[in-house]
């Protein structure tokens, strides 16, 4: 497939999730001419800095999502569900289904399962089902059916239980753009609860060393896709 025509939809539970965990891969494909869309099912506003208003911080998070996407010449979407209260229901699934049918991505990236965070775990289930719904003509929606052929789960320190790197993506070319773009998020550079930028910066170098590259990001794939087909040994 021509890299310049790839469309990627990255779906996180909160603004910043996909920007941190898959952002280098997104930046790499953006530099190659790909279309990048981020979708956050909540804004992640409950991580509000001390003394700040939650509503105002939510608005800031939405602006940060758009700033990151615009630096990659992409688009950012943020749903209105409250942080920490993302429901695991059909309403959300069909909203994501409709977005998949509209964006028509070649690749979907989202959270891996077994998360310490409820919103991440719900997002994992929602996206898997929404991808299925989006593909079926029997679900009559405004947009026509579409099947996103590739589904990847990003490496996240909060989703680390049983995560085993399956796919290594050389993100060396996307690293500098990613670092500049992700630094537009306050929590990435200003949070005192976890050193987000430092962690993912170092992780990309570690994965790069493992892949014999400068920088890399790791992903898992659905278990039913675990297969290697060769003519012989």
Describe this structure in words.
The two termini are 26 Å apart. Helix 2 crosses helix 6 and helix 4 crosses helix 5 (118-135). The longest helix is centred in the N-terminal third of the chain and has 18 residues, at 54-71. This protein has a seven-stranded mixed beta sheet, sandwiched between helices. Helix content is 39%, strand content 17%. The protein is globular and about 60 Å long. With 233 residues, it is an alpha/beta fold. It has helices at residues 17-21, 23-31, 54-71, 90-103, 118-135, 175-182, 186-190, 196-210, and strands at 7-12, 35-42, 75-81, 107-111, 150-154, 167-170, 216-220. It has eight helices and seven strands. The protein has a single domain, classed as LmbE-like (Rossmann fold, 3-Layer(aba) Sandwich).
Shape: globular
Q: What's the mean pLDDT score?
A: 95
CATH class value = Alpha Beta
Taking all Cα atoms into account, the compactness measure Rg is 17 Å
Helix content: 25-40%
Q: pLDDT below 50 for ≥5 consecutive residues: which ranges?
A: none
How many strands?
7
What is the percentage of strand-forming residues?
15-25%
Order of helices and strands: EHHEHEHEHEEHHHE
Structure described in brief:
By secondary structure, this protein is of the alpha/beta class. It contains eight helices and seven strands; from the N terminus they run βααβαβαβαββαααβ. A seven-stranded mixed beta sheet has the order 3-2-1-4-5-7-6, with helices on both faces.
């Amino acid at each position: 497939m021509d890299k310049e025509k790839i469309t990627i939809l990255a779906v996180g539970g909160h603004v910043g999730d996909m920007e941190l965990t898959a952002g280098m891969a997104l930046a790499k494909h953006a530099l190659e001419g790909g279309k990048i869309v981020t979708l956050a099912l909540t804004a992640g506003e409950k991580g509000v800095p001390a003394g700040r208003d939650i509503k105002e911080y939510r608005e800031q998070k939405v602006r940060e999502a758009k700033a990151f996407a615009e630096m990659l010449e992409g688009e950012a979407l943020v749903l209105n569900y409250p942080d920490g209260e993302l429901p695991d229901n059909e309403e959300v699934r069909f909203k994501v289904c409709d977005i998949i049918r509209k964006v028509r991505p070649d690749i979907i990236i989202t959270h891996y399962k077994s998360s310490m965070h409820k919103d991440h775990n719900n997002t994992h289930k929602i996206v898997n089902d929404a991808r299925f719904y989006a593909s079926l003509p029997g679900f009559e929606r405004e947009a026509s059916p579409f099947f996103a052929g590739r589904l990847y789960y990003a490496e996240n320190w909060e989703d680390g239980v049983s995560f085993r790197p399956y796919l290594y993506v050389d993100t060396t070319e996307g690293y500098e753009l990613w670092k500049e773009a992700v630094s537009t998020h306050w929590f990435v550079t200003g949070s005192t609860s976890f050193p987000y930028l430092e962690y993912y910066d170092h992780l990309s170098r570690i994965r790069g060393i493992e892949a014999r590259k400068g920088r890399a990001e790791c992903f898992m794939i659905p278990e039913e896709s675990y297969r290697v087909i060769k003519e012989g040994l």
